[in-house]
From TrEMBL:
It catalyses: S-sulfanyl-L-cysteinyl-[protein] + uridine(34) in tRNA + AH2 + ATP = 2-thiouridine(34) in tRNA + L-cysteinyl-[protein] + A + AMP + diphosphate + H(+). Residues 280-353 form the tRNA-specific 2-thiouridylase MnmA-like C-terminal domain. Pfam families: tRNA_Me_trans, tRNA_Me_trans_C, tRNA_Me_trans_M. The active site is at residues 101, 198. One of its GO terms (cellular component) is cytoplasm. Keywords: ATP-binding, Cytoplasm, Disulfide bond, Methyltransferase, Nucleotide-binding, RNA-binding, Transferase, tRNA processing, tRNA-binding. This is tRNA-specific 2-thiouridylase MnmA. It comes from Propionicimonas paludicola. ATP binds at residues 6-13, 32, 125. The keyword Phosphoprotein does not apply.
Amino acid sequence: MRILAALSGGVDSSVAAARLVEAGHEVVGVHLALARNAELYRSGSRGCCSLEDSNDARRVADLLGIPFYVWDLSERFAQDVVADFLAEYSAGRTPNPCLRCNEKIKFAAVLERGLALGFDAVATGHYARRELRNGQLRLLRSVDASKDQSYVLGVLTEDQLARSLFPLGDAISKAEVRAEAAARGLLVAQKPDSHDICFIPTGDTAGFLREQLGSHPGDIVDERGEVVGAHAGTQQFTVGQRHGLHLSVPAADGRPRYVTGVDPQRRVVTVGPHSLLKVRTIEAIRPSWAGPAALGTRTGLVQVRAHGEPMPATIVAEAERILIELDEPAFGIAPGQAAVHYDGEVVIGSATIAATRP
């Protein structure tokens, strides 16, 4: 196969590309330049897609003996990921930019360009698997549950999945991948993982939102509507948040309070006890399917955070809306996040959480 390997400059994508070369495929490496901001030069584990990462990716390609290119997708990234991120926070929701990047950039823009150039597939270092199940190609969780990234890949369509490869899906552990990288002579073998939002290299999401969206002061109120504090902008808050509230009036019982609601129209943030975060019903919109659309009612598992536990639920799926009834209540689920539903270890699809009810 002729494969376009996305090289982020990290250990995972490097080992993924090396495995494909070793398997005899015709591999070409591509690094995505997603920002022109000079501050994206980093050291350590902040961010990704920086100048340092580009240089690391080039060195990996040289060692593997494969062609290497840098594709400037910064304009599309700014529009489809960064602008979306800001718009969602402005609307009182909590987005997942990594998921949006997979949906709009890595498995849309890159895949489209790759196919136009004659490549058969795009490969990444994500921890997930593709397998034929009952004659149907499906997306599955990775063997290493602690590194599983099927949640952020749940937005892939059936056609995109057919043209995507995840060579690390069968890896037993990240330690195994690092050991393999060292054995292959890859200098990124011990490079730290990237944990932060790539376009916020400082890791200060609140500061970034404040800088980009400005200050819009308002009240923080308790569950009775009484003012207990002030804020500089609702974009600084997310449902379930406990820290950084700076409340001027303590709770009568002395217990911690959490953000239970964000209303950017009224510039009001509501706080209350942990019990008010209880969610039993989730309404999600804009469903996408990793296989045939699973419309109707069924039981399965639902995951609402990238590293969250899958929760048993009854799922009622319509063309434009999904209603999820959890078997047991969950707490602090924020609108804007993705609800990815599974049949065991198989990804069925993903949808964006629009509302929750206790």
